[in-house]
Inverse folding.
């Protein structure tokens, strides 16, 4: 270990001492970390950085905290797993700023996450300009989530879901009998409504468009619900006769107009499927009463600097800062008068404005000034979200805590790294410790202390190679990080860019901050799209390009299965743009993004890649399995016959805690194995199916050495640097970067036919430079096989090694959205207008 200088008895410059850490792959390590310092954990992906920083230090701090607030919960928390270690001393309470893995849980906005929305409400309540005679409103009245604030027309949603004749009757050449009213319920219920119309005398056999408008309106939009005799199975003529003769009906039926049916079903149904079905017949529009601002009229009549709170919340934070500044420093028009006449109000105004301004400034400095307060967090990238939380902490006035961060540079252009470091310094300066897992060289260089974990991933990692100030790492030969920090050959050798085989030309691209943009993407080469955070890269590449190409290929754009969000997603997009040339070079589109490979622990690496199907076949083919008639399904933890009944194949059960988030505990029956005892009796080469799922990819590669099909998948997984993952590692435990590499591997194991367009959004996130090299080799292979690769990327080593670079910007939000320069890396590096150029030039030297 390392000998650390120590000041006995001095707690301020104290250390956190960890002894015998064994969480995940950690090899019984001892390490001492200075407090009140910026400590950066480095090492290749899977080496054990997170296991130490999050799995051990943060988890233990959290556990101690829970224990102190709710001692009774101890047993349950212990059950959920205490990190494995012998002792940890000097550990302060911890706050984790982790990039979300899996689903973002709450629906929130920039304003609510940062709590700036609260202060803004206070500002409007206390310091707003009220119309003459209107009494002052509570802060609550400025929140759409309270009855006092919500617009009564849209209930605070800002949008109203409506139906039109067109939305409910998509094909008006059909008759009612032919189901012209597509929005009506299917099956019996729909027939019943039709029979009622027959009784009421409407013509159900004329094309919809030939019916009188008055009839059409009544059928679709009436709120009346007459109950009439129904003669099931009668023709209209027979019905008329039966009615005249007052024959006893089959039953009495109650009519419901199509609009009433759709809206009522949408609002009240418990079935997600029904909801989805009727939602197809709805169109949504901005609420006319509040103009989408979600608040009631009284609240919107209060202004600050001439804007209502809805208007202010839509502006980029940078502009909001500009509006608040005069109020904060007392130079706003009328401030002097206010100070004379209502000194108290003047004081309050200034104080709130100052506080708001300071908090917004931190966000702006972190490169987030292009966001608006009303922007919803699900539309933010994980990196943006983490920086939002970071900024919030900078102003929180907490001290004496450890902040544990997961790659805060993710999604950040090198031009913005400086401000990230400043924010970290600020947190440290207020008396906090920072434990940061990071790959970005500039952040590593800024550290007071480096903990290098390695030497490789998984089983081959888990050791502390170095712990101390940066310079000392230069002498540690086993370290892969060392090469990239000190080594000579760290920069990529610039090779001669490949010649494009054609061009995919987009015109009139309009989305978010892009307005009528024309862009050419080269085909058959490797392109990086660069630009500062918020410049419009994702809007261009991950949104418009993906959608337009998918549309041309007739692909469905794979919908993310986010409960209840489809609706909003489909309405907020205002879009424009078309592909005018180059589609002949593209036969397939593959998007390799960082979205989770599944949202439940039921999906994992093995199921996602298809590898598990082959493994299950091997088990089903064993003698023992055949003797018992166990088929492939028996070895799936998603199928009843083979899985553990207690946990239904999940491997754990959730334990609800009063007042605390629920925790997961291993299943008491199968202890996490997921299968029932009978299934586990079957062995393939001495291992049961649960043991195979517990193997790492590397271990499985040796184990299945005689099974070419399984081996092929495993080999590719190793090549993308995932040899350290366990086959059964649940999707919910994987980072975005790991999910992305799994998708890439799934793709690479296919037979390559060329003419595929691959689109990747910042694939280097979570990757050590050594892993980035591996990734580059894979992507290069795809291009060599005749495909096109387009990345959104911040890592200048990758950008410098591309064939073509498209730099978007120059700034963020409305200061961006244009193509600043496009060309070979050398050409872009020479551009004087591009903020990327200086960093790219540095890399190429
Ligand atoms: P890093 O942060 O350096 O990329 P991790 O600490 O995430 O590495 O992973 C180190 C090792 O621990 C890897 O082999 C990984 O598969 C394993 N590991 C990570 N998370 C878990 C988990 N929840 N359960 C079991 N093993 C895990
Ligand atoms: P980049 O990928 O370069 O970081 P984005 O394409 O994500 O940039 O964002 C470009 C601009 O569009 C920013 O001003 C951003 O706030 C805005 N924007 C991006 N996505 C959305 C969205 N879903 N809703 C509203 N504005 C958005
Ligand atoms: Zn409204
Ligand atoms: Zn079980």
């Amino acid at each position: 270990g390392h000998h650390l200088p120590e000041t006995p008895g001095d707690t301020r410059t104290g250390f956190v001492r960890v002894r015998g850490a064994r969480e995940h792959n950690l090899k019984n390590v001892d390490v001492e970390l200075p407090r009140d310092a910026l400590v950066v954990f480095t090492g290749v992906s899977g080496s054990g950085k997170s296991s130490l920083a999050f799995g051990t230090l943060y988890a233990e701090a959290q556990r101690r905290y829970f224990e102190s607030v709710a001692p009774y919960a101890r047993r349950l928390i212990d059950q959920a797993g205490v990190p494995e270690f012998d002792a940890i001393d000097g550990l302060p309470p911890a706050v984790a700023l982790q990039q979300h893995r899996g689903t973002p849980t709450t629906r929130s906005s920039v304003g609510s996450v940062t709590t700036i929305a609260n202060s803004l409400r206070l500002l409007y309540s206390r310091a707003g300009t009220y119309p003459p005679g209107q009494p002052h409103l509570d802060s609550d009245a400025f929140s759409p989530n309270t009855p006092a604030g919500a617009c009564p027309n849209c209930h605070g949603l800002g949008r109203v879901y409506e139906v039109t004749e067109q939305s409910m009757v998509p094909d008006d050449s059909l008759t009612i009998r032919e189901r012209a009213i597509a929005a009506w319920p299917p099956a019996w219920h729909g027939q019943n409504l039709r029979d009622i119309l027959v009784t009421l005398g409407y013509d159900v056999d004329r094309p919809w468009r030939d019916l009188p408008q008055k009839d059409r309106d009544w059928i679709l939009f009436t709120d009346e619900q007459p109950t009439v005799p129904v003669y099931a199975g009668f023709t209209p003529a027979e019905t008329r006769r039966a009615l005249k003769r007052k024959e006893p009906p089959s039953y009495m039926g109650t009519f419901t107009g199509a609009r009433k049916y759709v809206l009522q079903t949408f609002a009240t149904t418990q079935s997600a499927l029904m909801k989805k079905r009727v939602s197809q017949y709805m169109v949504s529009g901005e609420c006319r009463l509040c103009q989408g601002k979600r608040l009631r009229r009284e609240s919107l009549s209060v202004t600050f600097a001439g804007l209502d709170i809805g208007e202010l919340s839509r502006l980029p934070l940078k502009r909001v800062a500009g509006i608040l500044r005069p109020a904060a420093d007392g130079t706003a028009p009328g401030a002097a008068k206010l100070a004379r006449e209502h000194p108290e109000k003047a004081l309050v105004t200034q104080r709130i404005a100052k506080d708001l301004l300071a908090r917004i400034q931190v966000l702006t400095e972190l490169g987030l000034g292009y966001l608006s307060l009303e922007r919803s967090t699900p539309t933010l990238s994980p990196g943006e979200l983490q920086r939002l939380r970071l900024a919030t902490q900078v102003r929180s006035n907490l001290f004496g805590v450890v902040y544990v961060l997961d790659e805060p540079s993710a999604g950040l252009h090198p031009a913005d790294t400086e401000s990230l470091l400043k924010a970290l310094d600020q947190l440290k300066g207020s008396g906090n410790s920072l434990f940061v897992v990071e790959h970005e060289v500039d952040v590593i260089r800024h550290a007071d202390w480096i903990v290098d974990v390695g030497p490789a991933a998984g089983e081959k990692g888990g050791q502390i190679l170095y712990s101390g100030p940066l310079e000392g790492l230069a002498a540690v030969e086993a370290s892969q990080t060392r090469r990239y920090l000190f080594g000579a050959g760290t920069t990529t050798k610039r090779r001669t860019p490949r010649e494009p085989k054609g061009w995919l030309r987009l015109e009139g691209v309009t989305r978010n901050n892009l307005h009528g943009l024309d862009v050419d993407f080269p085909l058959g080469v490797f392109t990086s799209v660069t630009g500062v955070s918020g410049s419009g890269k994702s809007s261009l590449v991950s949104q418009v390009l993906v959608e337009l190409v998918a549309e041309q290929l007739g692909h469905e754009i794979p919908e993310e299965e986010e409960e209840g969000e489809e609706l909003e997603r489909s309405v907020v997009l205002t879009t424009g743009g078309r592909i005018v040339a180059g589609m002949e070079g593209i036969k397939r589109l593959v998007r390799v993004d960082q979205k989770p490979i599944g949202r439940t622990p039921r999906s994992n690496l093995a199921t996602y890649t298809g590898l598990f199907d082959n493994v299950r076949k091997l088990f089903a083919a064993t003698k023992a399995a055949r003797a018992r008639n166990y088929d492939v399904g028996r070895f799936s933890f998603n199928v009843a016959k083979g899985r553990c009944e207690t946990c239904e194949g999940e491997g754990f059960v959730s334990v609800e805690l009063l007042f605390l988030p629920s925790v997961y505990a291993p299943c008491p029956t199968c202890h996490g194995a997921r299968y029932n005892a009978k299934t586990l009796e079957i062995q393939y080469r001495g291992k049961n199916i649960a043991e195979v799922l517990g193997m790492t990819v590397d271990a499985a590669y040796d184990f299945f050495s005689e099974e070419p099909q399984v081996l092929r998948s495993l080999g590719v997984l190793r090549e993308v640097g995932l040899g350290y993952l366990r086959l059964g590692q649940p999707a919910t435990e994987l980072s975005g970067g790991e999910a992305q590499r799994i998708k890439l591997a799934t793709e690479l194991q296919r037979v390559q036919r060329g003419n595929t367009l691959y689109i990747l959004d910042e694939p280097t996130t979570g990757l050590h430079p050594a892993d980035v090299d591996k990734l580059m080799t894979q992507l290069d292979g795809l291009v060599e096989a005749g495909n096109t690769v387009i990345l959104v990327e911040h890592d200048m080593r990758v950008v410098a090694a591309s064939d073509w670079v498209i730099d978007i910007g120059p700034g963020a939000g409305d200061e961006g959205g244009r193509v600043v320069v496009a060309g070979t890396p050398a050409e872009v590096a020479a551009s004087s207008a591009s903020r990327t150029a200086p960093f790219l030039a540095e890399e190429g030297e």
